[in-house]
Amino acid sequence: MPVTDVITSPEDLTIRVIADFAHPVDRVWAAYSDPRQLERFWGPPSWPATFTEWDHTVGDHAQYHMTSPQGEKAYGSWEFLEIDPKNRFVVLDSFADEHGNTVEDLPAMRAEFVFEPTEQGSRLTTVSSFTSLEALEQVLSMGVVEGLTLAMGQIDAVLEGLRAYAQGKGTRTELLSDTHVRITRLIDGSRELVWRAHNDPELIRKWMLGPDGWEMTTCEVATAVGETFHYAWAPVGDVEGQPFGFEGELLFVDEPSRAVTTERMAGTPGPQTINDLNLFEEDGATLITTVIEYPSLEVRDMILGTGMAEGMEMSYARLEELLSA
C-alpha cells in the first residue's frame, strides 16, 4: 500500500496524503497525466473511474465519473490551475452533474499534487484545501480519506505493469477492510477471451471446477442486468463431499470489462455477497480482479476459511490451460 500517512488539519482546512513509490518521478507523473492510466486507480475498487474528457492544460478541464456496483454514477470535474511538468500540478476538484456542470451545494477543493525524488524512488504529496471547516467536515463524512487510500492501493499494478506485478504469483487475496476483499489473478490471454470464458456455459464447464474430482452439474449464466445465475457442483465417483451451488443476480455489466453480481449459497436466504469482477488487459495478458463485499467481518472470515482462494486458483489454472490451447 503506497499511502504512508494521512494528515487532517482542521486548523489549516487541509487533508494531506503522502504516498511513497519504488518508481522514479517520471513514471509516477506519467500515471497521473494519462487519463487511461489514472482511471485505473483514481476511483476506489468498487467505484472505478472513467475519464470522459481530458485537456492537461492550464485553464482547461478533465471530466470523469465513478460507477458503483449497481451502476450509479458520481460525476466530478478538474480545472487545471497550475502545471509544472514532472514536479507539480494543481486542480480545482469539484462535484459535477452528468453534463459536467459544477454542483454548487457540494464542496469543491483545491488539490495540489507534488512529485519528489527519494532514495527509494519517489514521493507524492497531495494537499487538498477547503474554504471552510464545514466543507472539510462534509468531505470527511463522505469517506474521502478511506476511499482515496483504497484507490491508491491499486496503483502498483499500473506502475509496474501487469506481468511484473502479477505473473507467476497465482491467485492473491488482499483484505481491504473488515467487509471487503480483493482477489487477483493474471491470465495469459486477451480480455475478450477471458470475458467469453466467464460467460459461455460450454467454456465455464471446462474450467470453473475447483478441486480435482468434481464436476459442474448446473451452469445457468446471467448475461443481462436483472437475470439470475445458478452454478452447482458435485463430487464424482469415490470423491468425498456434498453437492453445493451458488446463485445470484446480475446487477451491472459493462462487456467485456466489468460484471457485478450478488451471490449466496443456492437454496438459502444468505448470507449474500456482492462480487465485482473487473478485467484489464495489457501486453497480451488479462488481470482478473474480483472485489467481494461481505455483510460482516464474521461472514468474511468464515467464507475465506473454507479454502475459497485455493479452489479459485485451481480453477484459474485450468482457465489458463484452456486459453493457451
From TrEMBL:
Activator of Hsp90 ATPase homologue 1/2-like C-terminal domain location: 23-160, 190-323
Annotated Pfam families: AHSA1
Domain of life: Bacteria
InterPro entries assigned to the protein according to its UniProt record, in alphabetical order: ASHA1/2-like_C (IPR013538), START-like_dom_sf (IPR023393)
CDD domains membership: SRPBCC_CalC_Aha1-like
Similarity comment text for this entry: Belongs to the AHA1 family.
Designated name of the protein: Activator of Hsp90 ATPase homologue 1/2-like C-terminal domain-containing protein
Native source organism of the sequence: Brooklawnia propionicigenes
